[in-house]
Specification:
The complex is a heterodimer. By secondary structure, chain A is α+β, with helices and mostly antiparallel strands. Helices cover 42% and strands 22% of the residues of chain A. In chain B, the strands form 4 sheets. In chain B, strands 1, 2, 3, 7, 8 and 9 form a 6-stranded mixed β-sheet that branches. In chain B, strands 12-14-15-13 form a 4-stranded antiparallel β-sheet, with helices on both faces. Chain B is 47% helix and 13% strand. In chain B, α16 packs across α18 and α22 runs antiparallel to α24. The chains are: A alpha+beta, B alpha+beta.
């Protein structure tokens, strides 16, 4: 382990250091979205903001729900809900890898102590109609970050290209604290991860895998879908996107419940993708109507890092 | 004057598997671009690491070569009017070459005299041509997937961060996106990140080595192997050979450093393949075994950096592997809680391919087809065959295969044994996938071979029936590999399978399994109707022909392969024997009499094809001693050839055929085949044709090129 004074000793400290680091590099620090999402990418601060010409540099913690990964609080490595630290740098700066490596140093992971590697990874989200190329970043053989240059979102080309850095906070914290079981990790002084989330894991797993009402979820999926389309029709892409996210989460719950067959699966994914595309299109149009305000004035400072 | 060109594309980490092909593409693209620009050059070397692709060219000319351009213009009668003044045709021709009519030459030809133009196009300075050429070179490197970055429009596999571009000691400015171009490269990301100046080809590798980068792929690969061997020896074992893994690691590191690691020996009760997959698949660790091939609870990780204290990274490597082995243990235990056979039903819910039903449907077809394959090769199917066919895909729903698709078959064998299936069945469940690639083993047992053939023929027939015939380089369903696999199994087993009947049997099962209303339809091509049955069969047989040709031309001359295929490949094992016999003989002096006998007969038959009415030779019309002798010799040879062919002794058959040459020569020297009497002529043509036909069961000798 790296020397302890240099490493964050709690989950909270890890978050604070990453926030401080990226705030110091010109990123606005946001909060996770107030809706269920499967990843920080789905937060409108990523999915919608990577579209169009406006610069955008932000960092935020995203609590990410993956119903199918729920393990009733019994698996030491897998969770229903984990936390990502998400950074968007748009346009991706020339020294983005160095900035990223410096961020690791700020949490005590230094290149002369660890075997750090950028290993090819092609990222694709069929539900969001998004893809990008980049790496999974390895620290001593463990994936600690997903690093992606966004090429497309909602079916639209990303110009300029954003760099997305997604840190897997639980994994990194476990490694820094040298814990083999997620629940033994220190969350804050005197509090373990178990104290904070174990009950949530048990109940959420039970809900998603056993107790959810599939009929109701199917009905919700359809009405969320209809609402999303209606809102797109009246020129409200942001509220529409909320309903797109609700559809996606309903789908994830149905999937975890085993209620969607392999053949049906592609159909549902296609329906969510169509909504996401509509939201992306609506958002681009609304920003254009506003004259892409972040291209001007003070925003330019945010647009160029350092 | 010539000079060195030192050119390097500095990148963020490239996909490991793209490094070698991209470096190779750099060479071929340079060669064609330089040739097109008429810039002469000497030796070309290319190198690649995760962070750079380099092209080093010695002896690059400082100017493009001049070209003489010459053109033929109008005849003098057209070029000048009656008054001797140039016409518009003459002026237009001169203008095309930037000349005046008075500067044009004249040329006498048998048809008359015409205007000609000649000029020298002077080659430009390489220093002026290289910037554009090298920018095009970067854009011409192909990748499986390319990307944009920042606000740039150019694409590459990963962002280009610098360009080192020096010709004859001077920087060649190359514009590609936002990458700065200059006379420097950069060393290892962590160990020596500073700029390194390079001016000459000869200093490139050496200077980078000093900056902790082994840029030469072969050298780096050798170091990877040496590091793994060194650490494996320290661990008291040896490296489990795995070229693919070594290649991948070579594409991931610039300065390889082996680090030892260990895992709990309790995991060794899981199949070796599971452990090796866990180590190599996600983690890229090399496995370690004893001298007698038993896996040790150790591994070698190859780091990109010699870290200060290897204990730190070692703990990290071990930790990740521990979590992975715990997952594998979970799957292994869970999977074994149910007998393998209980999973067969679940296959009905696993789609094989849209339009071709479920994997369960496929297994039903395999069972029927494997039975047919055995009967077609003349044996009574084993009572175990149906069991193997039913179980062969059952492991697809296990957790372990879900996690590691490459363990299909391996887990099937393991779980079949665990469920108490007969060992032959378990082994065949594994072997039916063999060979999995060009260098893989072939099935040892007949059960696995039969089921494997049925599996491959079923896939081929199904996809051909859907009209998904591979074209060009695209082969998304791996049909070429499936076809070559089937061929290799048949040839290795020496099975005498009538190919077209196996194809029929496979197509039958696709037709039979679907009612007319649900006949296989290609969901992706709604408007294009699927090809009809006869067309699919013809295409599939042609596909086999193509694979046989590709497989055989690896070891045999192309003309001999063509000749043998032309004589038929319905029985591929037989065709292979013919190929071996003809191929062995070709290039030896004994081949000459054969070729001469066949050639003399063929030439005349070819010329007289329209007059020849096929039929038996009428002995009563044979008058000359030479033709009588040949007729007798043909009858004798025919019997001998037939006997040899029936026993598959094609070398013997060819030897007998070669003995025919004197009799053939005698007829051509002493007898006038094209006799005046039409009946005699017809009879003699038939005699000559009977000679030609002797060769027909072996190969079409007309296709073999003979050098006298």
């Amino acid at each position: 382990m790296p020397d302890s004074s240099a490493t964050p000793q709690t989950f909270v400290d890890l978050i604070l250091r990453l926030q401080a680091y990226w705030a110091g590099r010109g990123c606005a620090i946001l909060q996770g979205y107030d809706q269920e999402v499967g990843a920080g990418t789905m937060n409108p601060a990523t999915f919608l903001r990577v579209l169009g010409p406006e610069p955008w540099n932000v960092g935020y913690v995203e609590p990410s729900r993956r119903p199918a990964d729920g393990r009733f609080g019994e698996n030491p490595n897998r969770l229903y809900q984990h936390h990502q630290f998400q950074v968007i740098l748009k346009p991706s700066p020339r020294d983005v890898q160095d900035l990223y490596l410096d961020s690791l140093a700020s949490i005590g992971i230094r290149c002369d102590d660890h075997d750090l590697r950028f290993v090819e990874d092609d990222w694709e989200s069929p539900t969001l109609g998004a893809w990008g190329l980049g790496w999974e970043v390895w620290c001593d053989g463990m994936e600690i970050t997903q690093f992606t240059y966004f090429q497309q979102a909602g079916g639209f080309e990303c110009r300029p290209v954003s760099a997305e850095l997604t840190y897997g906070l639980e994994r990194i914290a476990m490694y820094l604290q040298n814990r083999d079981n997620i629940y033994d990790m220190t969350f804050a002084p005197g509090l373990t991860y178990r104290d904070m989330f174990h009950q949530n894991e048990v109940e959420m797993s039970r809900y998603s895998m056993r107790e959810s009402d599939a009929q109701q979820l199917f009905a919700l999926f359809s009405s969320y879908e209809a609402e999303c389309k209606r809102l797109l029709g009246v020129g409200l892409p942001l509220p529409a996107y909320d309903y797109c996210l609700k559809c996606s989460h309903s789908f994830n719950n149905l999937d975890a419940r085993g209620a969607i067959s392999v053949t049906e699966r592609a159909g549902y994914i296609g329906r969510v993708r169509a909504l996401a595309r509509g939201c992306a299109e609506g958002f681009l149009e609304s920003r254009k109507a506003l004259g892409f305000p972040l291209l001007r004035g003070g925003a330019a400072a945010n647009g160029s890092l350092q | 004057m010539t000079g060195d060109l030192v050119f390097e594309i500095g990148t963020e980490e490239l996909p490991a598997s793209s490094v070698v092909p991209a470096a190779e593409a750099l060479r071929t693209q340079w060669q064609s671009l330089a040739q097109e620009a008429r810039i002469a050059f000497g030796t070309v070397a290319t190198h690649g690491t995760p962070r750079r692709l380099a092209l080093l060219v010695q002896g690059v000319a400082d100017r493009a070569s001049d070209v003489e351009e010459r053109g033929e213009g109008p005849w003098l009668s057209v070029a000048f009017d009656a008054a001797g003044k140039p016409t518009r045709a003459a002026e237009a021709f001169a203008k095309k070459f930037g000349l005046e009519v008075s500067q044009l030459g004249r040329e006498k030809t048998p048809k008359g005299e015409r205007l000609v133009a000649a000029r020298t196009l002077q080659g430009g300075r390489s220093m002026d041509l290289l910037p554009g050429l090298l920018a095009r070179l970067i854009a011409a490197v192909p990748f499986r997937k390319s990307m944009r970055w920042g606000s740039e429009d150019v694409t590459f596999a990963r962002p280009v961060r610098w360009i080192l571009s020096v010709y004859d000691g001077e920087v060649v400015p190359v514009k590609f996106g936002d990458a700065p171009c200059g006379g420097v490269t950069y060393g290892h990301r962590f160990l020596s990140p500073g700029a390194v100046e390079v001016r000459k080809c000869s200093e490139y590798l050496e200077k980078l080595r000093a900056a902790k980068v082994l840029a030469d792929t072969a050298e780096r690969r050798a170091r990877v192997v040496a590091e793994i061997d060194r650490v494996a020896a320290e661990l008291g074992g040896r490296r489990v050979a795995d070229d693919e893994l070594v290649d991948t690691i070579t594409g991931l590191v610039e300065w390889p450093q082996g680090v030892p690691g260990a895992f709990d020996a309790g995991a060794l009760d899981m199949p070796r393949e599971v452990l090796v997959s866990e180590m190599r698949g996600h983690q890229k660790y090399a496995s370690v075994e004893t001298a007698d091939g038993r896996l040790l609870p150790h591994f070698v990780a190859v780091a990109n950096t010699p870290v200060k204290d290897t204990a730190v990274s070692r703990r990290g490597y071990e930790r990740v592997l521990r979590a992975r082995l715990a997952d594998a243990r979970y799957f292994f235990d869970e999977d074994r809680k149910r007998p393998l056979a209980s999973r067969v039903e679940e296959l009905a819910r696993v789609t094989f391919l849209e339009g071709l039903g479920s994997v369960f449907d496929k297994e039903v077809r395999i069972a029927g087809l494997a039975d047919a394959v055995d009967r077609l090769r003349g044996v009574e199917p084993s009572p175990l065959l149906a069991g193997v066919a039913a179980l062969c895909k059952a492991d697809l729903t296990t957790g372990m295969v879900g996690e590691f698709p490459e363990l299909q078959g391996v887990m099937g064998r393991e779980y079949a044994r665990h469920a108490g299936e007969p060992e032959q069945v378990a082994q065949a469940v594994f072997e039916h996938y063999l060979p999995r690639g060009a260098s893989d083993a072939l099935p040892a047992g007949d059960l696995g071979a039969s089921v494997g053939l049925a599996d491959r023929f079923d896939t081929l027939a199904g996809l051909f029936a859907l009209g998904r015939v591979p074209t060009g380089a695209a082969d998304p369903y791996g049909l070429r590999r499936a076809c070559i696999g089937a061929i290799r199994v048949i040839l290795a087993k020496g099975w005498r399978l009538p190919l077209s009947r196996v194809v029929d049997a496979a197509l039958d099962r696709h037709a039979a399994l679907f009612k007319p209303s649900e006949a296989p339809k290609d969901p992706k091509a709604k408007k294009k109707p699927a090809p009809d049955r006869a067309q699919s069969k013809a295409q599939l047989l042609e596909f086999f022909r193509g694979r046989l040709k590709a497989l055989w031309t690896e070891d045999h001359p192309a003309d001999v392969v063509e000749a043998v295929l032309a004589a038929g490949f319905e029985d591929m094992a037989d065709a292979q024997r013919r190929l071996q016999a003809v191929s062995a003989l070709k290039g030896r002096p004994d081949f000459l009499p054969l070729a001469v006998a066949f050639g003399r007969a063929s030439n005349i038959i070819e010329k007289q094809a329209k007059d020849l009415v096929p039929g038996p030779v009428d002995e009563g019309l044979l008058t000359e001693p030479a033709e009588k002798a040949l007729h007798a010799a043909v009858a004798q040879t025919h019997a001998a050839v037939e006997k040899s062919v029936n026993t598959g002794d094609y070398t013997g058959a060819l030897r007998v055929l070669a003995e025919l040459r004197p009799a053939v020569d005698a007829v051509f020297d002493q007898v006038l085949v094209m006799a005046d009497d039409p009946a005699v002529k017809q009879n003699r043509l038939r005699l000559v044709r009977s000679v030609q036909q002797l060769f027909a069961p072996i190969a079409d000798f007309a296709r073999i090129q003979v050098k006298f």
